What we know:
The complex is a heterodimer. Chain A is α/β, with parallel strands linked by helices. Chain A has helices at residues 5-12, 38-46, 77-93, 108-114, 146-155, 180-191, 206-209, 213-221, 237-243, 252-262, 313-326, 352-362, 380-388, 391-398, 447-456, and strands spanning 14-16, 23-26, 29-32, 57-60, 96-98, 123-126, 140-143, 157-160, 164-171, 199-204, 230-232, 275-280, 287-289, 297-299, 341-344, 372-375, 401-402, 423-426, 441-444. In chain A, strands 5-4-3-6-7 form a 5-stranded parallel β-sheet. A 5-stranded parallel β-sheet of chain A has the order 17-16-15-18-19. Chain A has a 4-stranded parallel β-sheet with strand order 11-10-9-12. In chain A, a hairpin with a 7-residue loop joins strand 13 (287-289) and strand 14 (297-299). Chain B is of the alpha/beta class. Helix content of chain B is 34%, strand content 16%. In chain B, strands 4-3-2-1-5-6-7 form a 7-stranded mixed β-sheet. The radius of gyration of chain B is 19 Å and the shape is globular. Classes of the chains: A alpha/beta, B alpha/beta. At the A-B interface, helix 2, helix 3, helix 5 and helix 11 of A face helix 4, helix 7 and helix 8 of B.
Amino acid sequence: MPRTLFEKIWDAHVVREPEDQPTLLYIDLHLVHEVTSPQAFAGLRVASRRVRRPDLTVATVDHNVPTTDRSLPIADPIGAKQINTLRRNCHDFGIQLFDIDSAEQGIVHVIGPELGLTQPGMTVVCGDSHTSTHGAFGTLAFGIGTSEVEHVLATQCLPQNKPRSMLIDVRGALPEGVSAKDLALGMIGGIGTDGATGHVIEYAGDAVRELSMEGRMTLCNMSIEAGARAGMIAPDETTFAYLQGRRFAPRGTAWTEAQDYWKTLRSDNDARFDRKVELDASALEPHVTWGTSPGMVVPVTGCVPDPAAAKSEADRRASERALEYMALTPRTRIQDIQVDRVFIGSCTNARIEDLRAAARIVKGYQTNRSVNAMVVPGSQAVKRAAESEGLDRIFRDSGFEWREAGCSMCLGMNPDILQPGERCASTSNRNFEGRQGRGGRTHLVSPMMAAAAAITGHFTDVREWKFK
Amino acid sequence: MTPFRTHNGTVAPLDRANVDTDQIIPKQFLKRIERTGFGEFLFYDWRFLPSGELDSTFVLNEPRYRAASILVAGKNFGCGSSREHAPWALVDYGFRAVIAPSFADIFANNCMKNGLLPVTLGEEEVAAIIENARTIDNYGLTVDLERRTVTDGRGFSASFAIDDFQRHCLMEGLDDIGLTLLYEADIAAYERKRSAIG
């Protein structure tokens, strides 16, 4: 019987299918960070349980960490306590931790792939909704809550009901200046923020095959913003080339054997999906969100929509509320919206290719004098790579701040936050009210679009950019 | 986990769609390392003005909804971050059930682990409950998990679907880690098989 990529991975991880209970699924890789794990470890202690497979568990600190000088102690005592708690838990339970002073520290969804921990065919979980990122490698990767973190620590398994499957077939080629981020935003705008609830998305089609691993990670990362349980892309030569030689990737004959297996990880030709969606990549434009939900998005050539034209009463009220929060007037041209801050970073868009794309725009220009702009690399490894290519110079010379790795202003758990009323062009994934700081106004864009806004001071169509 | 069988309570209407977990519990309160004490920060940016005073215009601050234990809201409730702090905050504040036309997957899972029942009803049924909660003083509902019904004793009655196993765990207040550990032999056998291949 023909199977989808998702079904092949699911089937390979079934430990048991108890009658009248969810399937017990084995987890190959459990990533842990400081914010969603302390209560899970506390639960293990209360029940006198051990971590079943510390060797399949890897931790780092990312959400809370300052992105300024790392030689200074962490100023926030509660944040410091959370980080210290993770240190103690990793020590007591024998878990490898890439700590704040580690050369491998970074956002958990950046370092997993970077270290070669994330490999095709795996099941990957983390107490973080953007775990969907790892699906770019042809893994089944999904976010879990803290109780489930405890469950995986104790048993290396999770009871799961099988999600439904959705194919998003992206035809054609992305035009110049239109990135994986725009594809993700366009997709969410099309199917809605709950359009894929209960489903695992497989992205396929020419435009997806043409994406680099960085682009695939950006796309899979934002699956959760469409409500999906996970997003995935079948592994191919691009995947293998990215993985080969990475620290935890297989070597020698193990590499050859692994690759033979990975090549079987694709949906069979006549595999059945519960839902199929087609997108035309060639018609996509750079996108900018205007509201307080990622589905509130329009092309850069568009205008802020008029709530009066909303499809339903509920949508109209949601739009009105969003416009009030965002301090925007209906029918304003997107390119007339001025920004105060620019944030290039996050698990969505802080990999080396993202920084290269942004630097290409920035090179030779100065940031607008009314804009405060920063780049927060996704990991220390990305930071080093960027510095070796001179990207940090380009950013600094044009007026950007160049920071240490972490989640930073994507969610503002560390000191990097927007002030009330500030408007930000951000390469992150959520434009929720207050996400980047209370009263802060977030517009989600690609790294190129964010870089251009930093220079001009307003949203600008990067397809018309004059590169220097 | 506190078992959930049937619950009677007053209803508070939060007539918004896509209520995300950042709203339910903003990030500055995620640094605690305990599961308790999040209730006072529930919907913080909506309940409190920037000055720290209560915002009297926010629905949960209206005196008639202060004792509410059932929250009714718009579609896609609990979208966004996987933070279990969201159901912890709702439970700590005093809610036992949330009714909405749809829930984000991770949030709904997290609720089930904490004795907080997510009840999915039709858009029209939810709209009717919101209207009643607004217009009828101390409007109450009975959420019966065993019979999978929501009733108000005034003629409103709706039934909801829920996974049988999750319902069983909620009703018994079961520790599902304990259940998985019963399959230790299967897990060990799976691991042996995998390492033999790998």
